[in-house]
Amino acid sequence: MTTHHVVGHDGWMAARKKHLAKEKEFTRLRDQLSAERRELPWEAVEKEYTFEGANGRQSLAEIFEGRGQLVIYHAMFNPETAGEHTSWTSEAACNACSFWLDNLNGIGVHLNHRDITIAAVSRATYPKIAAYKERMGWTFPWYSSVNSDFNFDYGVSFSPEELETGEVEYNYRMTQWSGTEAPGISVFIKEGEQIFHTYSTYERGLDMLNVAYHYIDLVPKGRDEGDAGLGEWVHRRDEYPD
Amino acid sequence: MTQHTIGTREEWLASREELLKREKEHTRLGDEIAQQRRDLPWVPVEKEYRFDAEDGEQTLAELFEGRSQLLIYHFMFGPSYEAGDPVNSSIADAVDGVLPHLHARDVTFAFVSQAPLEKLQAYRRRMGWSFPWVSSAPTDFNFDLGFSHTPEEGREVVEQMMGGGLPSIVDQNARSAGTDAAGYMTENPGFSAFVHEDGTVYHTYSTTWRGLEFVMGYYPILDHAPKGRDEGEAWQLWLRRHDEYE
């Protein structure tokens, strides 16, 4: 017998409508935040960043692929620093990042038709990236930033000197961090020849972009993660035991 | 030269940190609402629903495939449709890649539509999707939950809408699905959640319309891009099936 509160349809409907009012409030607040986000000032990108990808060496301007807006998913993958305590290995990107990338893979074509190129960027060399991308069957562009400051400048890679202090600047504050990589999303716009950085988000700011999480929030058990977070349950898609 | 406000790193950072506070409030409000959703009372499902599935007839309990939670997308594909519309198809695009992760959280995800199974199967093959998709043609399931209507009701809905002018997306989607507006409007889009405990199936949650936007994976991303959704009155008119973009 369930211990959950069970009612007839009318009782459920009354509770559901009350909840709907809160959901609408949440949706409207999201609309409002999206408008405020678009009003943020832009900062000009002054450095020349280069990336290695399927088309060889390319500049930040080139990886827009001719569109006006570029959304970068900073995927944690750095074979040089892979070890027992990293969520990435020498051959595979981090399991949580892989979960996010599964969410992005099917919708790139729709984004492309709203003037957006979506791509992933990691510190791994391109051959490592290409091998893992093939294993996972993903089709979005994914670049190596191994020879540029890009990841450091957008707050998702940390130098040994920074890490030595035990605290790094991440998600707009100083925080304890031990790994060389962190997850994030950065957004750029190109107007004429000039590129501007418009937005970056990290940590739980990324939840909003994970469709699977929104689904999981609709079912009775919810995320069911406890203090350990998703690290306890999330696996690369092809590594689940069943 | 851009018309947008340009700032230095410090100016951008100051504005970004202000917005971050509000984003965090929104995230926490989302957590609170998710908790309230889980606290909603449940309704036992008393009727015996039987669906047409790939391996023959399946009951609602069987759709759980041994897991304890079932999420159903009521994909708009009525008896008069020849194909799914681009908007519903884009929702399917966003979920197909994450099924193993949902399974790992004890959730089975299935699609239910009112059209005969053969039509659903043919369309699923064309789009290359892998989720289970069953037909509710033999049951009242979609009618009881308010996601399917009779052709007569479909006509009434369209007549009511005509007063305020039929939204362009209805007309475009109806044509794209190979039916007319009244035939198209026999269906509504939405999600329903169920839980299976000790031999009983309970209905826990349903949502529709803007409640679906969170799982239309491209919308949250557009909401973070400088141009936003950029739809105005022409909402969703830009969407195409993934194999039909020019």
**Shape annotation of chain B:** globular
Rg for CA atoms of chain B: 20 Å
Number of helical segments of chain A? 7
Indicate the proportion of strand residues of chain A.
15-25%
Bin the helical content of chain B.
25-40%
- Largest interface summary: A-B, 90 and 89 residues
Average per-residue pLDDT of chain A, rounded, comes to 95
* Biggest sheet statistics of chain B: 6 strands, mixed
List low-pLDDT spans of chain A.
none
- The strand order across the widest sheet of chain A is 1-10-9-4-5-6
Shape of chain A: globular
Helical/strand content category of chain B: alpha/beta
Distance between the termini of chain A: 28 Å
Tally of separate helices of chain B: 10
Low-confidence stretches of chain B: none
Count of beta strands of chain B: 9
Describe the protein:
The complex is a heterodimer of chains A (242) and B (246). By secondary structure, chain A is α+β, with helices and mostly antiparallel strands. Chain A contains 7 helices and 10 strands. Chain B is of the alpha/beta class and 246 residues long. Chain B contains 10 helices and 9 strands. Chain B has helices spanning 9-39, 60-63, 86-96, 99-103, 117-127, 141-144, 151-163, 168-176, 181-184, 218-222, and strands spanning 6-7, 43-44, 50-53, 56-59, 69-74, 107-113, 133-135, 190-197, 200-208. In chain B, strand 8 and strand 9 form a beta hairpin. At the A-B interface, helix 1, strand 1, helix 2, helix 3 and strand 9 of A face strand 1, helix 1, strand 2, helix 3 and helix 4 of B. Strand 1 (42-44) of chain A pairs parallel with strand 1 (6-7) of chain B, so a sheet runs across the interface.
